[in-house]
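[step 3/7] fold_predict: job queued, chain A
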Amino acid sequence: MTIHTREEVVKRVQNGMSLAEGDLSHADLSYSNLKGGNFERANLSNAHLQNTNLNHANLKGANLESAFLFGSNLQGADLEGANLSGANFQDTNLENANLKGVDFSGLSLFGANLDGANCENAKFVRTKMKRASLMGTNLKNADLSQAHCQRAVFRNADLTKARMHDTNLKYADLSDAKLKDTDMKDCIE
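[step 4/7] structure written:
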């Protein structure tokens, strides 16, 4: 199913119609209200989603390769199994999102809000997370090796068994974080 216009996508979401497995590659959906939309396994590669409201959207298994999500609202969204390769999540709201097992390696999460998100088994290798907020975030078994987390807030986060090899934690806030069996070899503090 190929959908060409922003208006058609917005109308389908507002009417509760599924866009699962739809081809929305290269679509410009910036500043759209797609709250609660079903984009499961949809192709959103190279989509422009700046400041788009995807609050509680279903993006399970979606292809978001090289998508531009700067400033988007993905609060409570489900991105489990999504392909995020090359995507930009700078200043994005991912509060309470399901990010279990997602690979953010090498991406920009600069200033992103991941408070309360489920990031269990997620990969943040070489991810730019400067000034990101991860308060109360589940980061069990997550890999944050070589991530840039300067001034990031991990207050009350669960980093049990997380890998933080060579992670830059300069000025990061780890107050009340659970660090049981966390591997912090060669961290920069």
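[step 5/7] annotate
The CA atoms of residues 73 and 153 lie 19 Å apart.
The first helix runs from residue 6 to 14.
exit 0
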